[in-house]
Amino acid sequence: MPSRSLKRIVIVGRPNVGKSTLFNRIAGKRRALIHDLPGMTRDRLTDVITLDDGRRFELTDTGGLEYGESPMSAYAGEIREQARRALADADLILFVVDGAAGVLAEDRDIATDLRSSASRTILLVNKVDRRDAEESVPEFYELGLERLLPISAEHGGGLDELLDVIGEVVPPESVAEELEDVDAPVRVAIIGRPNVGKSSLLNRLTNEDRAVVSPISGTTHDAIDAEIERGGRRYTIIDTAGIRRKGKTTDEAEKLSVISARKAIERCEIGLVMIDATEGVAGQDATVAGYAEEAGKAALILVNKWDVGEHTQDEAKKFEDMVRFKLKFLSYAPLEFISAKSGRRVEKIFARIDTIVRGYRTRFRTSELNEILERTLRQHQPPAVKGRPRRFYYATQLKAQPTTIALFSNVDEPLHFSYRRFLENQFREALGLVGCPIHFVLRARKGMKRDVAVEKEQPHGDRARRQSRKK
To answer: Lowest CB count within 10 Å: 15, 20, 55, 419, which one?
Structure first.
């Protein structure tokens, strides 16, 4: 969990009043999905925010609180429970209402729920930049909350005044914690197609209901961050929305969810690729796993729901063979059979993650890489290029995350895929990399391109000499 010394600020309100817009405005980045469709935020979305003076606090955007019948009422009870848990620990509550719409019955219901927390609640009347909205601001005093601030989350109006209020709650000591925080948390994204158990795994890992879990496919829209600690090490777990195939993504909110999920993959170090054991490996699983592979992320394959019925070792071997066949491009990724619902083998994930990320972050000595290259070439020389032998001169690491190695050669033609795979396997085994992709960048040694060009021009010179002799 995030450090208890960080102050917790929670945004609450009915659907579509601008909570997620305010969250993004304070965070200074587009973390929460924004759309005119009510109910886009269903889970708690939390981020650690750093102010200009270095002070830090934990900001949480809750799902829209609904009362009565609505299209989203299937989630209303659980969303209210999520918000209730967040509010219980909050140091400051930002109650957002829509100034353009005026006071509604739902606002009154929420204000009643917040009455016991009035001393740590500030009422934010949003959208005051819209026509006649500013004139309706005094109406909101009827909600019984003394501290009221008109704002425009969309355009930043009133934000400086709000940050001043937040600054009163967040102590200067929180700066020192940032300076001491040298070891960054391991960034882990839970990815997979809809309804494979991603939110259940997040809840199991955090030991609390951070995400709304439902048998309805596509419940999660936002990428949800949760910071946890195991064995003295911190992890940022990112639960992403289920990714559907492009042709299956027609709903506007769902398209935004896919964008959010792909952005989450971009900012993680390792992707936990979840597969539903009860449904087998689908083409969609390969698509989702492919996004992580394309982004150069480390990977761990999790076969979820393995506690349903009895399973023998032969069945596990057969299922793993199927996964390996259909996800050939992730041949380097370890595989674990788990049950997010019961917790079976879930704690083993952390040891796997530690091993994988250790290699993913490592920079290797150039001398070590060249020793591996020499041994590999003695074992198997690369195929010739257009009849010309390919030679490798040396190797050096360009960057980590993922391990990217430059191979200096006499030609810069692409490697044949089978020899590239051979090189990857040799380097991965020698470097002890588990679950990590390796990228090779071919570079012609300085001066070699010129030599190649001369050779290409030579036949023209020979032809000219032969023609001159004929004359």
So the answer is: 419
